[in-house]
């Protein structure tokens, strides 16, 4: 299932997507907020970290399985929510659903998807599906989405807390003047579509992407309307991680939205260890942002993530060959992680810990 000679690492899928997607779609996917400092830093910071391998530890077989919120997944590499996957390939989110199911991993469904959440869940029953929601200003919209996700078989509700307003993408403004490409289909919100195509103005006026007046009380309310576990996506500080614990959420994801919201925040890998040390014994901590290689995954697990999530590589995989392309992406990362575990002396995910990473004050000057 490995990709052909043109795509041997995840960066190759990005190059393919840049060449083959329409300009507007490419810019929408690849952009970060404002000057894109954080977007670049997410990847740069991974490259700065140095590993300390151990040898002679019998790594002839490796076990990449782990659990997230009690559910077994075959690899600690899961899929972050990304909007409008149909712009990349007609397989859209159904392709991603089938690929993630085949790898028995977790896919987070974006609420602003090209296919409805019911169609995405039906596409493959394997793996674990979590539903991503915003705190919408109209509580009926939020409640309705949570109930639909429960009925469709989702096993967790991910609340994206870093998007009380959509970050400004300069590059989108240069090519289109819009927030999202004009032909975006938004299947979960029929009311705001004409022939499936979203009306960005009405959608943003009435539904909005988040509520700037949202507070922790909204998280308590969301907890009260569902029995599903709650995962907060977009936590970047120890302070907020501790408040999340007080509010009894089940897990947090250290995320800066792939550098698309507040520009100037640190790379997620640079705040992961302190957040994980503060709350990792109480709730599960995941991370996303800039994960592109097996050694990135290894570093993130060593610094306290229970699992990593990937955003853009999945849409670039879709752009390459639909469902097969997403499988290629997952297979490459899985193979790279397995090799990195062998070469660093780790046989199981539990063997991966901080001892295989050089001290931060030594590597951060590199
Ligand atoms: C095109 C695009 C759309 C996204 N849509 C969503 C979304 O609907 N909900 C959300 O919480 N995050 C969204 N994100 C952020 C991702 O979930 C994730 O945090 C980010 O892409 C991770 O960084 P990476 O792309 O470097 O892997 C989106 C990111 C991109 C690039
Ligand atoms: C008008 C819909 C905007 C969706 C924003 C999706 C997202 O989180 C991102 O593009 O980033």
Automatic annotation (TrEMBL):
Keywords: Oxidoreductase. Its cofactor is FMN. InterPro entries: Aldolase_TIM, Alpha-hydoxy_acid_DH_FMN, FMN-dep_DH, FMN_HAD, FMN_hydac_DH_AS. CDD domains: alpha_hydroxyacid_oxid_FMN (cd02809). Pfam families: FMN_dh. Residues 2-362 form the FMN hydroxy acid dehydrogenase domain. It catalyses: 2-hydroxyoctanoate + O2 = 2-oxooctanoate + H2O2; a (2S)-2-hydroxycarboxylate + O2 = a 2-oxocarboxylate + H2O2. Belongs to the FMN-dependent alpha-hydroxy acid dehydrogenase family. This is Hydroxyacid oxidase 2-like. It comes from Saccoglossus kowalevskii.
């Amino acid at each position: 299932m490995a990709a052909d000679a043109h795509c041997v690492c995840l960066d190759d899928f990005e190059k393919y997507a840049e060449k083959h997607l329409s300009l507007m779609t490419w810019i929408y996917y690849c952009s970060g907020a404002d000057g894109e400092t954080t977007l670049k830093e997410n990847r740069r910071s991974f490259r700065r970290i140095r590993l300390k391998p151990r040898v002679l530890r019998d790594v002839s077989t490796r076990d990449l399985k782990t659990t997230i919120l009690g559910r077994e997944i075959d690899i600690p590499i899961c899929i972050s929510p990304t909007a409008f996957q149909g712009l990349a390939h007609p397989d859209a989110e159904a392709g991603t659903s089938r690929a993630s199911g085949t790898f028995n991993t977790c896919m987070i469904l974006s609420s602003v998807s090209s296919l409805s959440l019911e169609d995405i869940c039906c596409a493959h029953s394997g793996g674990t599906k979590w539903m991503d929601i915003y705190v919408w200003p109209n509580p009926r919209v939020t409640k309705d989405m949570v109930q639909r996700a429960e009925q469709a078989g989702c096993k967790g509700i991910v609340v994206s807390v870093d998007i009380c307003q959509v970050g400004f993408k300069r590059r989108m403004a240069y090519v289109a003047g819009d927030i999202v490409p004009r032909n975006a289909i938004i299947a979960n919100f029929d009311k705001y579509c004409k022939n499936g195509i979203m009306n960005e103005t009405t959608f943003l006026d009435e539904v909005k992407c988040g509520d700037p007046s949202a507070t922790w009380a909204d998280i308590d309310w969301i907890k009260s309307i569902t029995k599903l576990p709650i995962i907060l996506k977009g936590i970047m500080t120890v302070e907020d991680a501790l408040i999340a614990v007080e509010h009894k959420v089940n897990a947090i994801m250290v995320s800066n939205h792939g550098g698309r919201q507040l520009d100037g925040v640190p790379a997620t890998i640079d705040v992961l260890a302190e957040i994980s040390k503060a709350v990792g014994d109480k709730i599960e901590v995941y991370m996303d942002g800039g994960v592109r290689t097996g050694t990135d995954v290894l570093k993130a697990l060593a610094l306290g993530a229970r699992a990593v999530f990937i955003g853009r590589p999945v849409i670039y995989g879709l752009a390459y060959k639909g469902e097969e392309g997403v499988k290629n992406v997952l297979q490459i990362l899985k193979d790279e992680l397995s090799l990195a575990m062998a070469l660093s002396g780790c046989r199981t995910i539990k063997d991966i810990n901080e001892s295989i990473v050089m001290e931060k004050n030594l590597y951060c000057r590199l």
